[in-house]
Amino acid sequence: MKMIQAIALALVLGGAAAAHAEQPIQRTDLITSDIDVPGHEVVQVRVDLAPGVLAPNHSHPGEEVAFVIEGTLEYQLEGRKPVTLNAGQSLFIPSGVVHSAKNVGNGKASELATYIVRKGAPLVVPAK
Description:
10% helix, 10 strands, Jelly Rolls, signal, RmlC_Cupin_sf, Cupin_2, RmlC-like_jellyroll, Cupin type-2 domain-containing protein
């Protein structure tokens, strides 16, 4: 399982727009745009996780709204009980909160992640 986690984190950190379907996590960057808040931008990505795959603990330099497109994802936010979301459900993740996401369903799970983040900061910061 550690190997899958390491691969997953590497893909999340590096982006995976050109990833192949056999990869455990595929990230497709959709849009990045300046917004009216000085020093911030909006970033939207699609994240696809194979069954059983965990996107290990990480945080973002701004807020995230995660919308489950398909499948079932379990989110664990630091200091909170896990929450399981199905397709059509959303979750707000505050800036800097360490969290993980795991595909707990039998098939592929996908989320649409929208971030309002500090411009120029790394989108994903691995937890220590």
